[in-house]
Amino acid sequence: MILHARNQIKRNNFFIDLLVRCTFSNPACRNLSYHYPLDSSTLRGTSIGCQETKSPDLNKCSNFDVLIAKVRAASSVDEIFYSLSHDHACSAVQVSHSIVDVLLHRFRDDWKSALGVFRWAASRTGYKPLPESYDIMVDILGHAKRLAGAGEWEDAVRAFDDLGTFGLEKNTESMNLLLDTLCKENKVEQARAIFLELKSHIQPNAHTFNIFIHGWCKINRVDEAHWTIQEMKGYGCRPCVISYSIIIQSYCRQSSFHKVYELLDDMEAQGCPPNVVTYTTIMYSLAKSDEFEEALQIPERMKSVGCKPDTLFYNALIHTMGRANQLLEAVQVLEMEMPKHGVVPNTSTYNSMIAMFCHHGEQQKAINVLKDMENSPFCKPDAQSYYPLLKSCFKIGKTDSWLSSLLDDMVNKHHISLDISTYTLLIHGLCRANKCEWAYLLFEEMIGQDITPRYQTCRLLLDEMNQKNMYDATERIEAFIKQMKSS
What we know:
This protein is an all-alpha fold. Helices cover 69% and strands 0% of the residues. Helix 5 runs parallel beside helix 8 (111-123) and helix 26 (420-432) runs parallel beside helix 28 (455-467). The two termini are 30 Å apart.
């Protein structure tokens, strides 16, 4: 009985996920801007009276009450569907768009009931749900956070077979959605088995094989990804830059850079040159592996094949130069090379510069970059812009006016809310600087904003409060720690 229930939950979760993703892929359901015509407060409660529905199709309140009663009596999507489908009174109700609209609104906070009603309505002869109804259903499922991953692959096949119930065609696109859902849940072998079953009557396309390439790489089976590229060619589909770049990214994670270069040469030989995203990935990965000399050769290689850099590439280049202690060159990239190529810096560009200067003890230069960003027409500072500067305050011992000035600009000038990382940095730093009273005020501020401090932060602050004999604060922190443990 328990095993059956678990399988049912898995099947429902997969079915919901597939329904949502197929609905979004349906051209008739894209780019909809549907707004609920009724206020949610009107729709909550035990029932909706006939005078509230305003629907000419619900001319008998008892019919609507019968539908509600049948739904409420069932406990699962399948039970709701069966109960509505096999009840004589429910079968007598003429399903219309207005009825479905009211029912979905009635059960907008109950995804199982909404999905059961939707399946029942879609199964009725002569009725086809509107795209707007699909959109409401997707919204209900999304708010319910039921977009779960795939369960057993046999359940996936059953859910795929049931797509016709919702008026969704079993074609290449819906097959790809099924395979993609499974591969993202690391069920690549199961996805492969399904593909072998479906390929005889559903034609795969290039995206089908890219899904498998990504799936094999995700589970570190790059050889199968290479084999998939060959299979792709056998089906008459030409591998694109995405196909190769997925494998390159996998090699980068393994620091197998000799294989990266081999694949780059193969891409150029196949008439599929790498793009800026490919080169950005390679350069960033080389820098992460401390291969700075090789990383800084990537821009020249990229230039030699006529690939133009973008903002993300320059961000990675500045980051690499910073780690390679080439501060002057990084400044030249921001101030000269980017404007020369018409590439606009974003917040991350400036943040990389600020972090670079702070790391090398050039706090005033970091402040100058922050001021440049404040005056930029393209972007403004965020919490990450200030994090290295705040960290520097504790590193060099400026925990008075300079720290206060930074926080004041951050909160009052730019209206930036402190996140948990910033609060943690401040509380730990202030405790080490023997300013635990200020640290405690920040602790209270965190709680007041529903940001839960980390346990280590609570313990550190508790020890400091005990040493200062601040008994009220100690009791408050102990109560909070107890609450954390109980929850």
